[in-house]
Amino acid sequence: MGTLIRNGTVVNAGGTLRADVLVDGEKIAAVAAPGVFTEADTVIDADGKYVLPGGIDAHTHMEMPFGGTASNDTFRTGTTAAAWGGTTTIIDFAVQAKGTSLLSTLDKWHEKADGHCAIDYGFHMIVSDVNDQSLKEMESCIGAGVNSFKMFMAYPGVFYATDGEILRAMQKATDTGSMIMMHAENGIAIDELVAQALAAGRTDPVQHGLTRPPELEGEATSRAIQLARVTGAPLYIVHLSASQALAAVAAARDTGQNVFAETCPQYLYLSIEDLARPDFEGSKFVASPPLRPKEHQADLWRGLRTNDLSVVSTDHCPFCFKDQKELGRGDFSKIPNGIPGVEHRMDLLHQGVVAGELTLQRWVEVSSATPARMFGLYPRKGIIAAGADADIVVYDPTRQQTLGVDTHHMNVDYSAYEGMPITGGVSTVLSRGSVVISDGAFHGREGHGQFLARELSQYLV
Ligand code: URP
Ligand code: ZN
Ligand code: ZN
Question: What pLDDT was estimated at residue 1?
Answer without folding.
Answer: 76
